[in-house]
Amino acid sequence: MCAVIERRTAARSARLRAAVVAEWIKVRSLRSLPTALLAAAVFSIGLAVLVCASFHARWDALPAERHRAFDPIDTNLGFLQITPVFFASLGALVITSEYGCGLIRGTFAATPQRGLVIAAKALLVGVIGWIAATAITCAAFLLGQGRLAGAAPHVGLGSPGAARAVLGGGLYLTLAALLGMFVGVLARNTAVAVSGVFAILLVLPTMVDNLPHKFLWRLTVPYLPSNLGLSVWHHGHLPPDLARPGVGVLGLVAWVVAIAALGTVRVRKRDA
Amino acid sequence: MIEARGLTKVYRDTTAVDGLDFRVEPGHVTGFLGPNGAGKSTTMRMILGLDRPTSGSVKVNGREYQGLVWPLHQVGALLDARAVHPGRSAYNHLRSLAAANGIARIRVDEVLETVGLTGVARKRVGGFSLGMSQRLGIAGALLGDPGVLLFDEPVNGLDPDGILWIRTLMRSLAAEGRTVLVSSHLMSEMALTADRLLIIGEGRLLADSAMNELIARHSAGRVEVRAADPLRLADDLRARGGRVEAGADGMLLVMGLGSVRIGEAAAAGGHVLHQLRDVTASLEEAYFRLTEDSVTYRAPVPA
Amino acid sequence: MSASPTFTGSAPRGTRVRATLRSEWIKLWSVRSVPVSLVATAVAMLLGAWLLGAGYQSEWHEMAASERTSFDPTYACLQSANLAQLLIGALGVLTVTGDYETGLIRATFTATPQRGQVLALRAALFATVVLLLGATVSLAAFAVGQSQFTEPVPHATLGQTGVLRAVLGVGLYLMLIAVFGMGLGVLTRSTTLALTALFGILLIVPSVLTMLPGRGAEGILPYLPAVAGSQVLHVVRSGNSLGPWQGTALLALYVATTGAAALVMLRRRDV
């Protein structure tokens, strides 16, 4: 009995390994993915450096209240309000590009356990996403602080809260990529998935932000993915009423799991 | 009628079509043959005004395609059967094409009937098999009742019934006096359908002739001979300059001497012949002899 | 040889332009994504107006005095246009790139070799549909939103200065975004690239500029397509933004430039 179960789990893990290897080969041979990741890196690091350099150049001219409100870490990592959209779109494309060209039929024919295919993809998106994201936030931080040095306040990775912000940023980007991937599973269509990702991460938050911070706001707005993400990486005075960092991580994971559950049900039910 | 003069298409550093001159006449099914990458599809796209020639021109009924106001009434084309929006029904796909050329809606029902898709006309094209898509593409080509028809690989994905159907259709379209140009790489199918051939390789015209002429020219005059004493006959034929190979059961395969001269040699030498037969090449053999020097993508021959 | 027979089944009906219009009209409505996205747009606008209206109404007494004076009851109900532009822009992109990615564009241009005419008329049809739908839905959203407001929350009526312009402006803004998306679709011939370009220009560039300190970035901001074009939705004008008609004219200029570039490329390129 135990042996049977053992063999069964062994077979399952072998199948997962095979699925991951297959997906890895596909990802590696996909020419657009490294290009897109590189573009995201250039955009994020470039923006961080540009923002820090601008503060460095204008520091003396800025009014005193801008000086007081200035947080070197948050200013440096401001790109984390935009880059998640790229990561989420990329995650979505990993799925929808296969639907777009009909490759998904081949994929599901090779591995009929559709949940397994999705799991293998999620594993790769998570790992590649985390490595890329953390590399990007670290590089952006180090280069950005370097640009601030000399005129504006600046910090090192060892200063309190800095490492948490940088690693938190990497984690947020990774979860955004996974969120986007499962939105892709749900939508099965590039245009719908990318529009959805922009709506959730960029448009919705700015729209509801103007509402008074009361009952309705408190119940919803802090739990939008972008604001949960903000809780995770933000260092200085957090905008009032947002969730705590721990809640931020849990909330983002809950979003990913919820959309993954919806997506997996749909993948199982629908014809490829 | 389709007429190309010095038709050339250069993409960056590769010449896809290189100075083609040809005429495709009405009343025939003209086969357009060539290995993959020879420039067949590029030529077809230039005929339809989709790609612009780098130099030279191609005209349909004496006009450039780009200048036609109602092109579907003059030219119908099947290019890529899968090139439809998967979410649209067959009926709406054809209706939009018909509307673009002022063709009455009733004609859509007619061509759907002709290709046998009436039953699935309201279904989304995304669910069609390749064969059904092919029929839909053919329906689109027939919409305007045009005098010139282009078919790019029309038998792809069709079942044997479908292949017979399209073969009959193309022959009857030609018999009505229309110009029919069919590209294919399926030699056996071409041999049954076409009566004229246009062969290209590496973008250049290799042959433009009637099917039977082409085959006769490239049969290389092989003759099968059976004789009572094959060894002695072989010596006699070699002495007259023929090349002789031994076939099965004492049969001789003679090249370089026509059947007339073989018969004369046999009479002169007092041979008893059991059989004397000209061997005609198949289209495939003729084609391979013709294109031997111009195959772009030849598979490596195993040693 | 006998005189070759002519094959023209029946004489074409109507003019070239009318035939193209009819064909594009059939194409527009015969895929599900068009009605679905348009209905989704209407739902997003109405739901947004209702939720935001209720939100402001219930928590008006908590708002700071400065927030109350700058409160724009019209814009509060029309804000969902920001969400709707994603749907409409993406649909605009798809009406073009869908043809390119399936290869259908070859059949389209074989039936009508006048490529510029095909795309220009497709844009005109889609723009008209979006304009009418946007204006109608916006009127309804305005009514839904205003019905939530009671004293002391200020309440807008169509008769007030600028209110009708802002409400109908939703249709105008969405129409321009739709054509912008189509133009980018022709230029890139790829859904992914066109969407990235469209959303990048509309959403990312403004966010990037707001992160930069100093007058340079602040000075450019009002002239960006989305920022300029959306001024028509505001009744209360803020800071250094352009006026509603100036802004709309500027967005129209961006769109016209993109459209012109698209038409030139269309003529030059092989399909």
From TrEMBL, chain B:
Domain ABC transporter: 2-227
Protein's UniProt keywords contain Transport: yes
GO molecular function terms noted in the UniProt entry: ATP binding
Domain of life of the native organism: Bacteria
InterPro entries: AAA+_ATPase, ABC_transporter-like_ATP-bd, ABC_transporter-like_CS, P-loop_NTPase
UniProt keyword Iron present: no
PROSITE patterns found in the cross-reference section: ABC_TRANSPORTER_1, ABC_TRANSPORTER_2
Entry-linked Pfam families: ABC_tran (PF00005)
Keywords associated with the record: ATP-binding, Nucleotide-binding, Transport
Similarity annotation: Belongs to the ABC transporter superfamily.
Protein name as annotated: ATP-binding cassette domain-containing protein
Gene source species: Microtetraspora glauca
